[in-house]
Amino acid sequence: MKPLEQLEAEGFYIARNVIPQANLDLIKSDITDLAESLNIRHSSNSYHEIWNNAVSESRAKGSLIYNAVKRLPSVLNLPNQGVLDFAKENLGVRIPALVDVNFRIDAPQEGQFAFDWHQDYWFSVCSPMALVAWTPLVATDEKVGGVDVIPQSDKNAKIYRTIRNPEYKSYSNSILLDEPVPNIKIVSPQVNPGDCLYFRFHLLHRSIPNTSDNMQRWTIQSRIADFSDLEFKSHEYKPGIVSKEFISYLDGKKS
């Protein structure tokens, strides 16, 4: 199937080698510079080594790396390096709106920050037809993990019933699925650095636990809406808000 046909039929599509290697190299160079500025030891420019050496000093130093990488221009600029172009040329996005660019480090034994089954629509609203572009910076395997998805077509798109988590611990567990997960085959896409996993906001998906000994899953997630999407326009082109006090999807609009 063509990319748009698969996206419409299953809710996701993997685009191979969309991101130029030069841009991946720039991100690695910037993160290495960050590590050096924080006096974090490393010898091989390995993301895993940088993180492990940071947290061996203190978990707070790991958080510094995490918070800093989220604000690197090379990370925030990643969607402009092939990701948006592919969405426009192959996935039916007419006038792209970059809703946000997020960065995650999923380390072993930190499963409390992982997402269980959810739809991005709950968090960002915009439209069920909006897209997440999920891009790993490290090789993923059975231990490092990635994401599980449950295929759902655009034609039969469903936004599932949810409830607020009464024990808010983090953004990732603030909204909970309040009906059974459909009995459909789960797919675990294999995505490598340079690839991009696109999926709809209506797609049920979850984080696969990182069960490795000392490796992390470094990923960038770009959320892409379409200014020509009438539902996005009905929300005044404003993405959703999620905080301990207010969740747009559950509480209504907030100016």
What labels describe this entry?
two-stranded antiparallel ribbon; alpha+beta; globular; 255 residues; five-stranded antiparallel beta sheet; 9 helices; Jelly Rolls
Question: Can you describe this structure?
Answer:
The chain has one domain: q2cbj1_9rhob like domain (Jelly Rolls, Sandwich), CATH 2.60.120.620. The protein has a 5-stranded antiparallel beta sheet with strand order 1-7-3-9-2. It is globular, with a radius of gyration of 18 Å. The protein is an alpha+beta fold. Helix content is 29%, strand content 20%. It contains 9 helices and 9 strands. The chain has helices at residues 3-10, 21-37, 47-57, 59-69, 73-76, 83-90, 120-124, 230-234, 248-251, and strands at residues 12-15, 96-106, 131-136, 147-150, 162-164, 175-177, 196-200, 204-207, 217-226.
How would you summarize the topology of this molecule?
Blueprint: H1 3-10, E1 12-15, H2 21-37, H3 47-57, H4 59-69, H5 73-76, H6 83-90, E2 96-106, H7 120-124, E3 131-136, E4 147-150, E5 162-164, E6 175-177, E7 196-200, E8 204-207, E9 217-226, H8 230-234, H9 248-251
Antiparallel strand pairs: 1-7, 2-9, 3-7, 3-9, 4-8, 5-6
Helix pairs in contact: 3-4
Tell me the Rg in angstroms: 18 Å
The unreliable regions are none
Q: What string gives the helices and strands in order?
A: HEHHHHHEHEEEEEEEHH
Portion of residues in beta strands equals 15-25%
What is the CATH architecture term?
Sandwich
The tally of strands reads 9
Instruction: Indicate the percent of residues in helices.
Output: 25-40%
Major sheet: arrangement of strands: 1-7-3-9-2
> What is the averaged pLDDT score?
93
CATH topology: Jelly Rolls
CATH superfamily: q2cbj1_9rhob like domain
Characterize the largest beta sheet: strand count, sense, and whether it forms a barrel.
5 strands, antiparallel
**Count of individual domains:** 1
Shape: globular
